[in-house]
Amino acid sequence: MFFERPESGERAILVHMDMYDESVQESPRELEELALSAGADPIDILIGTRHRPVSKYFIGTGKLDELRTLVAEHKAEVVIFNHSLSPAQARNVEREIQCRVLDRTGLILDIFAQRARTHEGKLQVELAQLEYMSTRLVRGWTHLERQKGGIGLRGPGETQLETDRRLLRARIKTIHSRLEKVRKQREQGRRSRQRAEVPTLSLVGYTNAGKSTLFNRITDADVYAADQLFATLDPTLRKVELADVGPAILADTVGFIRHLPHKLVESFRATLQETIDATLLLHVIDAFDEERQGHITEVENVLREIGADEVPLLQVYNKIDQMPGQQPRIDRNDEGVPTRVWLSAASGEGIDLLLQAINERLTDDIFHETMNLSPREGQLRAQLYAQGAVLQETVDDQGAMHLEVRLQRKDLLQILSRLGLPTEQYRIHEIY
């Protein structure tokens, strides 16, 4: 119904209004990128300034006249607003300029519809589209003003508008039911990973920050990555091996954007659950973008909205290959904990530093010390070797074994518990 659409290449006029209220401010450059990502052909942009939107047309009558002229002059097929319009505003503008009108929310939904590949992704997009459409249904079926009441039906029948709304409600209910099954399946997978104590790393960030490129670089995967907004829509999970941690799950998620439509956030809650339940969030930031601070704020707002603002977070400043003189590095806080990594996912510079920072953030309880074992404790020695925890070993003249051991403290405690050995009997010498 929504997904078999060709690359349209429709001639589009863009409309951007600078608002004095910064909370509703948008970026005209981002609007152009969104339009291009949707397959439109932006041929002109109408820019103006307003204290507040006009209730009837959103823009003033003067700008409406300019827009009508631009549409006629360029033979435009669609007008795209960089703002959310009410259903009445969209209809009023369409009626005045005799051209199809799309607002920012509708444009983002259109891009999502093109990019959805998995069954779950398509269900989530369709749900968001249906809920968006349900507020915009108007009576367009005057030739079917009333359906006839058939045998067994009372009254004059439903209007076509009522029928459309009833069908939409039924479809929305069906999709909610299917997504609930998907949510339960994902929850089972998360519970099994938690039982196995496998940490999850979730890539989050503004759209087109380079999350999928970084994902491919770390996992050797082949996830679609392109220099366009919302290149990734469906979540992808891959297993990675970390030096001190062992196996971990890396999740690539949908990018965020300024004023991400609330219906999309709701529809993608099953997908975003990977972010909420992550052990560590990797916030990928386009370090070269002049609007990066605003993008950071927007991502933090969405994380707060989905309830993930309390999850530990490591900032990843990407695309330093576009910044002359910028070298890969790790920034730390006053306690020496990594808080920010500068790298380039495209060239691979700094990836080793990122893995080092992830290891440090996930292994704040690493046991890296010397254990002195007697010849009778060969079973413990074998278990440590089986874990790959022994870095080096020396044996003295009395046959005592001195092992340099590095592993997570919880893993050592499990070994000792399995062998029935009391932890306090070992004199531990910390390595400096």
Enumerate the spans where pLDDT stays under 50 for 5 or more consecutive residues: 1-7, 139-156, 427-432
Radius of gyration: 28 Å
Which structural category fits the helices and strands? Answer: alpha/beta
Please outline the major beta sheet: 7 strands, mixed
Q: Roughly what percent helix?
A: 25-40%
Number of contiguous helices: 13
Order of helices and strands: EHEHEHEHHHEHEEHHEHEEEHEHEEHE
What's the total count of β strands?
Answer: 15
Query: Going across the major beta sheet, what is the strand order?
Result: 6-7-5-8-9-11-10
Mean pLDDT: 78
* Strand portion: 15-25%
Bulk shape: elongated
Describe this structure in words.
Helix 1 runs parallel beside helix 4, helix 4 packs antiparallel against helix 5 and helix 5 runs antiparallel to helix 6. This protein has 13 helices and 15 strands. The N terminus and C terminus are likely disordered. It starts with 10 loop residues before the first strand and ends with a strand. The strands form 3 sheets. The chain has a 7-stranded mixed β-sheet with strand order 6-7-5-8-9-11-10, with helices on both faces. A 4-stranded parallel β-sheet has the order 2-1-3-4, with helices on both faces. Strands 13-14-12-15 form a 4-stranded antiparallel β-sheet. The chain is an alpha/beta fold and 432 residues long. It is 39% helix and 21% strand. The radius of gyration is 28 Å and the shape is elongated. Its cofactor is Mg(2+). This is GTPase HflX. Monomer. Associates with the 50S ribosomal subunit. InterPro entries: G_HFLX_dom (IPR030394), GTP-bd (IPR006073), GTP-bd_M (IPR032305), GTPase_HflX (IPR016496), GTPase_HflX_N (IPR025121), GTPase_HflX_N_sf (IPR042108), HflX_C (IPR045498), P-loop_NTPase (IPR027417). Belongs to the TRAFAC class OBG-HflX-like GTPase superfamily. HflX GTPase family.
